Amino acid sequence: MPSRQVGAPTTVMVRPLLLKPQWMNGLSERLLVSHYENNYGGAVRRLNAIRTRLAALDWARTPVFEINGLKREELIAAGSVILHEIYFDSLGGHGDDPPTELAEPPDGLAHAFERDFGSVMAWRAEFTAMAKALAGGSGWAILAWSERLGRLVNQWAADHAHGLAGATPILALDMYEHSYHLDFGAKAASYVDQVMANLNWERIDARYRMAIGEEVENEKLFLPFGAPSRQEARISAEELKTALENGEDRRPVLLDLCLPRDLPRRTDMLPSASMHAPAALPRWVEELSRDRPIVVYCICGFQVSGMAVTELRQRGFDARALVGGITAWHAIGGTTVPLDTSTYDDG
After folding, report:
1. Are 43 and 77 in contact (CB under 8 A)?
2. 275-296: pLDDT as tens digits
3. Whole-structure pTM over 0.90, yes or no?
4. Nearest to 101 by CA among 114, 113, 92, 109
5. What's the CA gap between 13 and 328, in Å, rounded?
6. Cβ proximity of 22 and 265 under 8 Å
7. Which of 4, 98, 126, 267 is most buried, taking the most CB atoms under 10 A from its CB?
């Protein structure tokens, strides 16, 4: 099940992409990564800045207009963060397999659609029509479970803070222009159809079952495919940022792993990282020190870094994988430098 992803009281941690942006059907990597890093990441950064400011307020002396403004912006930013996470979690296939475009909801959720809308087809017709009606404006199309109404509801939302009271969103479709313009221009209806062809019903179903109070134990559903399953073998972007502020003797060694075919997708890397091909591990592992922790990252934190960390830990290294890879690092606003392939050897 999704972790709370909350660090210190004022810090909301970024969630990784669970979809593989290069393997989606009709939604480009450029669109998805830009949306994630700039819009979702920007909302997380904005929310954390607001929360930091609120934590420092003298509530008895702060002017009411400042309190009103900050709390309004906190609500908007928090809504944006949460709805974007549900949006991205709801998309994608499994591993390197793109969405099939033909997948249907699991039986339990399909029966809920039949109960509350008459059929899966009827639900889909209403949901997509509602989303397309937002074209040219902004907002969200949301599928939510309402305990009070005792049913699933297709909820129209004009903005990030426009939610059905007491309801739990299980699917969210972003209808702000930033979600589609790079690929579709003004053709928002085409974007809606393409999103509907890329849904990950297994994760949507898991959110529904959690909303109605059922136990969902498959945490791997909400981890990038191939990421280490053990918490101690992973590190968040926020934790890494803090660790890199340590002294030289305690600062982690950074390894940037990239498949040869993925090099054209890369433009930057973390400062002080060395870049390597995963297949060359038996050669470059001999150069690693056992006196410092090691953090391994790839593009999005899937099996490239996950498999390497598993191998390194088996060899006795204190190695952890960066959850979400350099994409999550971009989302928190982490510093990067131009790509340096001088240490790269794919032979």
Report:
1. yes
2. 999 999 999 998 898 889 999 9
3. yes
4. 92
5. 10
6. yes
7. 98
